[in-house]
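Morning run. Coffee first, then this:
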Amino acid sequence: MERASVTRLYKDSSSQKTIMLLETKANGERFKVTLPSQKAGILALEGHGLNDRCPLYRVLSECVRELGGAFGSVVVRLDEVEGVSGRIAVSRGEQIVSWINGDVVELVAFALHVQLPIYVSKEYPSDRDDETALAESMSLPSVFEEALSDILDSGPGASPPFAD
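And here it is:
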Protein backbone atom coordinates (compact mmCIF):
# COMPACT_ATOMS: atom_id res chain seq x y z
CA MET A 1 0.00 0.00 0.00
CA GLU A 2 1.47 3.35 -1.02
CA ARG A 3 0.55 6.97 -0.34
CA ALA A 4 -0.79 8.65 -3.47
CA SER A 5 -2.26 11.87 -4.74
CA VAL A 6 -4.69 12.77 -7.50
CA THR A 7 -2.52 14.41 -10.14
CA ARG A 8 -4.90 14.71 -13.05
CA LEU A 9 -8.54 14.35 -14.07
CA TYR A 10 -9.20 14.27 -17.81
CA LYS A 11 -11.38 12.89 -20.57
CA ASP A 12 -9.56 10.37 -22.77
CA SER A 13 -10.06 11.53 -26.35
CA SER A 14 -9.93 8.04 -27.86
CA SER A 15 -12.34 6.31 -25.48
CA GLN A 16 -14.31 9.38 -24.32
CA LYS A 17 -14.05 8.05 -20.75
CA THR A 18 -13.12 10.15 -17.75
CA ILE A 19 -9.79 9.17 -16.16
CA MET A 20 -8.45 9.98 -12.69
CA LEU A 21 -4.69 9.69 -12.52
CA LEU A 22 -3.30 8.64 -9.12
CA GLU A 23 0.44 8.93 -8.59
CA THR A 24 2.30 7.32 -5.70
CA LYS A 25 4.49 9.63 -3.67
CA ALA A 26 7.33 7.17 -3.06
CA ASN A 27 8.19 6.06 -6.58
CA GLY A 28 5.94 8.10 -8.87
CA GLU A 29 4.07 5.04 -10.16
CA ARG A 30 0.89 6.10 -11.97
CA PHE A 31 -2.49 4.42 -11.93
CA LYS A 32 -5.34 5.28 -14.27
CA VAL A 33 -8.81 4.88 -12.78
CA THR A 34 -11.79 5.08 -15.13
CA LEU A 35 -14.65 7.03 -13.58
CA PRO A 36 -18.32 7.24 -14.45
CA SER A 37 -18.58 10.47 -16.46
CA GLN A 38 -21.63 11.63 -14.52
CA LYS A 39 -19.66 11.48 -11.24
CA ALA A 40 -16.37 12.95 -12.46
CA GLY A 41 -17.75 16.44 -11.94
CA ILE A 42 -17.70 15.86 -8.17
CA LEU A 43 -13.89 15.61 -8.23
CA ALA A 44 -13.54 18.49 -10.69
CA LEU A 45 -15.61 20.75 -8.44
CA GLU A 46 -13.65 19.64 -5.37
CA GLY A 47 -10.43 20.62 -7.12
CA HIS A 48 -11.82 24.14 -7.46
CA GLY A 49 -13.29 24.24 -3.94
CA LEU A 50 -16.86 24.28 -5.26
CA ASN A 51 -18.10 20.85 -4.19
CA ASP A 52 -21.78 21.06 -3.24
CA ARG A 53 -21.33 18.25 -0.71
CA CYS A 54 -19.10 20.33 1.56
CA PRO A 55 -21.88 20.78 4.18
CA LEU A 56 -22.33 16.99 4.21
CA TYR A 57 -18.60 16.43 4.71
CA ARG A 58 -18.60 18.79 7.68
CA VAL A 59 -21.57 16.95 9.22
CA LEU A 60 -19.91 13.54 8.74
CA SER A 61 -16.68 14.72 10.35
CA GLU A 62 -18.56 16.23 13.29
CA CYS A 63 -20.60 13.02 13.79
CA VAL A 64 -17.49 10.86 13.95
CA ARG A 65 -15.77 13.34 16.27
CA GLU A 66 -18.81 13.31 18.61
CA LEU A 67 -18.58 9.52 18.70
CA GLY A 68 -14.99 9.88 19.88
CA GLY A 69 -13.35 8.93 16.61
CA ALA A 70 -11.84 10.43 13.50
CA PHE A 71 -11.59 9.60 9.82
CA GLY A 72 -8.16 8.17 9.13
CA SER A 73 -7.35 7.59 5.49
CA VAL A 74 -8.90 6.51 2.21
CA VAL A 75 -7.67 3.37 0.45
CA VAL A 76 -8.31 2.95 -3.28
CA ARG A 77 -7.96 -0.72 -4.15
CA LEU A 78 -7.02 -1.72 -7.69
CA ASP A 79 -7.89 -5.29 -8.61
CA GLU A 80 -7.84 -6.73 -12.13
CA VAL A 81 -10.72 -9.10 -11.35
CA GLU A 82 -12.92 -7.09 -8.98
CA GLY A 83 -12.13 -3.65 -10.40
CA VAL A 84 -11.63 -0.46 -8.41
CA SER A 85 -13.13 -0.03 -4.96
CA GLY A 86 -12.63 2.22 -1.96
CA ARG A 87 -12.84 2.30 1.81
CA ILE A 88 -12.30 4.82 4.55
CA ALA A 89 -10.81 4.14 7.97
CA VAL A 90 -12.46 5.34 11.16
CA SER A 91 -10.13 5.41 14.15
CA ARG A 92 -9.95 6.19 17.84
CA GLY A 93 -6.55 7.40 18.89
CA GLU A 94 -4.02 5.30 17.02
CA GLN A 95 -6.38 2.33 16.56
CA ILE A 96 -8.55 1.71 13.49
CA VAL A 97 -11.98 0.71 14.77
CA SER A 98 -13.78 0.33 11.46
CA TRP A 99 -13.42 0.29 7.69
CA ILE A 100 -16.36 1.64 5.70
CA ASN A 101 -16.74 0.75 2.02
CA GLY A 102 -17.85 3.52 -0.31
CA ASP A 103 -17.90 4.91 -3.80
CA VAL A 104 -14.35 5.69 -4.99
CA VAL A 105 -15.26 9.12 -6.38
CA GLU A 106 -17.06 10.17 -3.20
CA LEU A 107 -14.29 8.89 -0.95
CA VAL A 108 -11.51 10.59 -2.92
CA ALA A 109 -13.49 13.86 -3.02
CA PHE A 110 -14.05 13.60 0.74
CA ALA A 111 -10.34 12.92 1.32
CA LEU A 112 -9.38 15.92 -0.81
CA HIS A 113 -11.84 18.17 0.98
CA VAL A 114 -10.85 17.29 4.55
CA GLN A 115 -7.20 16.62 3.64
CA LEU A 116 -7.05 12.93 4.48
CA PRO A 117 -4.23 10.79 3.12
CA ILE A 118 -5.08 8.67 0.06
CA TYR A 119 -3.43 5.29 -0.45
CA VAL A 120 -3.36 2.99 -3.46
CA SER A 121 -3.34 -0.73 -2.79
CA LYS A 122 -3.47 -3.94 -4.75
CA GLU A 123 -5.27 -5.48 -1.77
CA TYR A 124 -7.07 -4.14 1.28
CA PRO A 125 -5.48 -4.25 4.69
CA SER A 126 -7.22 -6.85 6.79
CA ASP A 127 -10.19 -5.55 8.73
CA ARG A 128 -8.61 -7.05 11.83
CA ASP A 129 -4.97 -6.00 11.33
CA ASP A 130 -5.17 -2.85 13.45
CA GLU A 131 -8.20 -3.58 15.56
CA THR A 132 -7.63 -7.03 17.03
CA ALA A 133 -7.02 -5.65 20.51
CA LEU A 134 -10.19 -3.55 20.54
CA ALA A 135 -13.33 -4.79 22.24
CA GLU A 136 -16.47 -4.99 20.09
CA SER A 137 -18.05 -2.32 22.27
CA MET A 138 -15.47 0.15 20.96
CA SER A 139 -16.71 0.04 17.37
CA LEU A 140 -19.01 2.62 15.83
CA PRO A 141 -22.74 1.98 16.04
CA SER A 142 -23.83 -0.05 13.00
CA VAL A 143 -26.62 2.46 12.32
CA PHE A 144 -23.98 5.15 11.76
CA GLU A 145 -21.90 2.90 9.50
CA GLU A 146 -24.96 2.00 7.44
CA ALA A 147 -26.01 5.64 7.11
CA LEU A 148 -22.50 6.68 6.10
CA SER A 149 -22.30 3.86 3.56
CA ASP A 150 -25.68 4.91 2.10
CA ILE A 151 -24.53 8.52 1.80
CA LEU A 152 -21.22 7.60 0.16
CA ASP A 153 -23.00 5.25 -2.27
CA SER A 154 -25.70 7.76 -3.23
CA GLY A 155 -26.24 8.07 -6.95
CA PRO A 156 -25.37 11.02 -9.16
CA GLY A 157 -27.61 14.02 -8.76
CA ALA A 158 -28.83 12.90 -5.35
CA SER A 159 -29.08 15.82 -3.00
CA PRO A 160 -26.96 15.33 0.08
CA PRO A 161 -28.85 15.00 3.35
CA PHE A 162 -28.37 17.83 5.84
CA ALA A 163 -27.60 20.29 3.02
CA ASP A 164 -28.63 23.88 3.69
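The two ends are 37 Å apart (CA to CA). Good start to the day.
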